[in-house]
């Protein structure tokens, strides 16, 4: 029972951690570490929650999870009463739903990107003003990345070329290339699928919003390695004023029409603040802990 309680406590701790992290602002100073912590919390929650349910189901075997599952399979779960069988079915159902929704999210994104790439092949063009990017003849402001395994496409609109000067455009292109290089689309996929599983839970939506902002900040940081921060900040403000529409499905855009995240990004670009070392080290230590602890609890015998 102690192992079951510990797994349940870890699952609850990851939920409370996600709640606190969704409101935190220190994450803006080190977005890459914060993204890793978000991923660890999500994975740790899944391992701990499924493990807690399995631990309840396997209590009659008194062998823990790792050794109890083969024993249960050997006697076809004959020892399980209604309560323990319900816990087993809940664990199997949760695992199935999470994996199915993740696979569904991957399928939908891949299909949307394939369609968009086919459309770009018909209507997009090259332009010397935006090297290594595709240009759409549209008056609205748009700039986004279409990630891919073998190649990624950066797309800007004619409206963007008219909106930005050469330096600002170069900063925006650097931002979008950062999304492609760091495969931020893969970071978002588990959170998109989690929102599909729990669409009515507000915390899940806040988690996705927080991670989306962090990957934009991470791309901002990579872009300013190559371009002055002021160029990207000015470009973001111009995009916000132009009120761009949402990026196409399966893509990552440089800016949305929401003023608050844009202003947060501009402020950290123009007035960067160093992250205290103790906070950074604590977050780095929490990343493996959130994953390793529930895994260890899976392997321990009941005590």
From TrEMBL:
One of its GO terms (biological process) is proteolysis. Its cofactor is Zn(2+). Residues 111-198 form the Peptidase M48 domain. Binds 1 zinc ion per subunit. The chain crosses the membrane at residues 36-61, 82-107, 281-300. CDD domains: M56_BlaR1_MecR1_like. GO terms for molecular function: metal ion binding; metalloendopeptidase activity. The keyword Metal-binding applies. Signal peptide: none annotated. Keywords: Hydrolase, Membrane, Metal-binding, Metalloprotease, Protease, Transmembrane, Transmembrane helix, Zinc. InterPro entries: Beta-lactam_resp_regulator, Peptidase_M48. Belongs to the peptidase M48 family. This is M56 family peptidase. It comes from Actinomadura logoneensis.
């Amino acid at each position: 029972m102690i192992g079951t309680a510990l797994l349940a406590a870890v699952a609850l701790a990851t939920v409370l951690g996600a709640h606190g992290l969704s409101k935190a602002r220190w994450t803006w100073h080190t977005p890459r570490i914060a993204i890793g912590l978000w991923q660890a919390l999500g994975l740790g929650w899944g391992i701990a929650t499924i493990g807690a349910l399995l631990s309840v189901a396997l209590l009659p075997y008194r062998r823990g999870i790792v050794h109890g599952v083969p024993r249960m399979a050997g006697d076809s779960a004959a020892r399980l009463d209604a309560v323990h069988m319900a816990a087993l079915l809940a664990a199997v159902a949760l695992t199935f739903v999470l994996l199915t929704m993740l696979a569904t999210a991957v399928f939908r994104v891949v299909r949307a990107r394939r369609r968009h790439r086919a459309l770009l092949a018909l209507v997009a063009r090259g332009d010397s003003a935006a090297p290594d990017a595709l240009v759409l003849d549209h008056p609205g402001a748009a700039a986004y990345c279409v990630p891919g395994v073998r190649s990624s496409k950066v797309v800007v609109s004619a409206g963007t070329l008219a909106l930005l000067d050469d330096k600002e455009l170069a900063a925006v292109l650097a931002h979008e290339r950062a999304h492609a290089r760091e495969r931020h689309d893969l970071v978002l996929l588990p959170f998109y699928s989690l929102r599909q599983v729990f669409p009515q839970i507000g915390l899940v939506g806040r988690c996705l919003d927080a991670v989306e902002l962090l990957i934009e900040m991470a791309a901002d940081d990579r872009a300013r390695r190559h371009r002055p921060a002021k160029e990207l900040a000015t470009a973001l403000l111009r995009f916000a004023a132009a009120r761009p529409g949402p990026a196409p499905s399966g893509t990552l855009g440089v800016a949305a029409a929401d003023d608050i995240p844009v202003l947060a990004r501009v402020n950290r670009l123009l007035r960067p603040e160093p992250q205290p070392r103790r906070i950074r080290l604590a977050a780095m230590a929490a990343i493996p802990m959130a994953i390793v602890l529930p895994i260890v609890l899976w392997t321990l015998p009941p005590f």
